[in-house]
Amino acid sequence: MLKIQAQSKIPTDYGLFTVYAFSENEEDWSPHLVLVMENTDFNKTVNVRFHSECITGEVFHSKKCECGQQLDAAMKYMSENGGLIIYLRQEGRNIGIINKLRAYALQEQGMDTVEANLKLGLPADARNFDVAVEMLNLLNVRKINLLTNNPDKIKS
Predict the structure, then answer these.
(1) Banded pLDDT at 127 (limits 50, 70, 90)
(2) Residue 153 lies in a domain
(3) 151 pLDDT more than 70
């Protein structure tokens, strides 16, 4: 069962967020995170973005994905409209950074992301959004406006 293991206010280029670290174990070095924009009212409909970790796009600004731009856009949106970002530690569609780099190598040979994952014997997309719903429940968020273009996130 997930618990809030730590929380702190973090000033960003987009404003002040409170960041919560969620994990089953307080010694988990890679917990899921929730970034809540200041003045977000959980008694109203809350703007929510589920975002899966992407070190290549967010940190190294890889041209192979739009994850960094999507995270920046979400933070900017939340700063202007209130809401929260659920940052899920499921790198590379939940295949991990090593397999993601292997998939990148196959993409250099002309495969797309799905083809590369399947060639490696991995699922096309192994992400799970159930944990995001659990985090929303722990924060007592009852009604959301989900900001996504991915119908699999809506099914959760």
Answers:
(1) confident
(2) no
(3) no
44 and 81, same domain (yes or no): yes
Q: Which of 125, 130, 142, 152 is catalytic?
A: 125
- Would residue 142 show up in a list of annotated catalytic residues for this protein? no
Backbone angles phi, psi at 32, to 5 degrees: -70, 150
Q: What is the pLDDT of residue 95?
A: 85
Amino acid at 156: S
- 43 φ/ψ angles, rounded to the nearest 5 degrees: -80, -10
Catalytic residue among 127, 130, 142, 152: 127
How many Å is the Cα radius of gyration of the chain?
16
How confident is the model at residue 154, as a pLDDT?
A: 61
Q: Residue count of the chain, please give it.
A: 156
Co-location of 58 and 101 in the same domain:
no
Annotated active-site residue 130? The verdict is no
